[in-house]
Every structure is written in structure tokens, then in C-alpha cells.
Design a protein that fits this description.
The chain has 173 residues and is an all-alpha fold. The protein is built from six helices and two strands. The chain has a two-stranded antiparallel ribbon.
């Protein structure tokens, strides 16, 4: 028995206990982890999920809403409480986005391609907003967040297609 089959057997034996627990959470539909895409798409999504947790917590709880550390603005540029509040507000929505991402990774892997579409839309819409409503560039050129999104766009597209491509080993948990 291969390592993959052993892990699958262990996870399937937990299925009965999971069904018992789901009776206590009636708002969630039954577990749907019959993901058939490439395992690399899951691994990339886990890494992406960790980075997005960091980003959302920084925007929500960091003193200047992440505008200084993530976006590269100076303290003088973001000294207005409304600007800091707007960054924190976006962080709250990012926390919700991350919660959905992790819920799908843990319980509803069947919807992993949908998560990639959500992340692609997030990336493209942020770029569109930047074009429609340009801001004063931060001191020192392109902010780390902008560079992050330039790198992520092609990666998200590649892993989206990998999540659609059938794997020879289905991942069922």
C-alpha cells in the first residue's frame, strides 16, 4: 500500500466522525472533498493562503493599516485617520476572503478552481482600480504589494488550469 493510499484510508475512516460533527453545524453543507485536479494546485493554494492571512492581518491590525509596510507609503502620506481606516476596512474583507479560502481547502476542495477564479478577479480588479483611480506613488517606486500582484497573476493562471486538469490520483479527504 502506497503512502497516498494509507493517508486516504486514514482520512476516509474519519468520514463517519465528520458526519457526526456536521450535525452540529447545520449551516454548512456536507463535506465535498472530491477534488480531481493536480495536487500542485492545492499546495500552491496553501502557500497563497498563508501569505493572504499575513496580508489581511497586517491591513487590519497594523498601526498604519499596512500602508507603510506593504504598500510602501510614508507615514506622512497616510497620516489621515480615514486613510488608515480604509486600509483596515479592506483588511476585514481580506480576512473573510481568507476564511472562505481555508474552508474550501479543508472541507470543500471540489471548489478549488472557484477559489482561483476569486483570486484572479481580486488581482485584476485591484489593477483596474489602480488604473481608474491612480494615487501618488509611494516613496521609492513600486510598493512590495504591486510587485507581489505582478508575480501572482501568471502563477494564478497556471495553477487555475492545473486545478482543472484531471490528476491520475484523486485527492479525497
Amino acid at each position: 500500500m502506497s503512502l497516498f493510499q494509507k493517508i486516504k484510508a486514514k482520512l476516509t475512516s474519519k468520514d463517519e466522525r465528520t458526519q457526526e460533527k456536521s450535525k452540529w453545524i447545520p449551516i454548512l453543507p456536507p463535506k465535498q472533498n472530491d477534488y480531481q485536479g493536480q495536487p500542485a494546485a492545492i499546495v500552491f493554494l496553501v502557500i497563497m493562503g498563508c501569505m493572504l492571512v499575513f496580508r489581511s492581518l497586517m491591513h487590519t491590525f497594523e498601526t498604519h493599516g499596512g500602508a507603510v509596510i506593504i504598500a510602501g507609503y510614508t507615514i506622512e502620506q497616510v497620516n489621515d485617520p480615514m486613510i488608515i481606516w480604509a486600509w483596515a476596512w479592506s483588511g476585514v474583507f481580506q480576512i473573510i476572503e481568507v476564511m472562505v479560502l481555508w474552508m474550501i481547502l479543508i472541507r470543500y476542495r471540489k471548489f478549488i478552481p472557484l477559489v482561483y477564479i476569486m483570486l484572479l478577479m481580486d488581482n485584476l480588479l485591484l489593477k483596474l482600480v489602480g488604473v481608474i483611480k491612480p494615487t501618488t506613488p509611494p516613496a521609492g517606486g513600486a510598493p512590495p504589494g504591486a510587485i507581489f500582484y505582478l508575480i501572482m497573476l501568471p502563477l494564478l493562471i497556471v495553477f487555475f488550469f492545473l486545478s482543472l486538469r484531471k490528476s491520475s490520483k484523486y485527492i479525497v479527504a
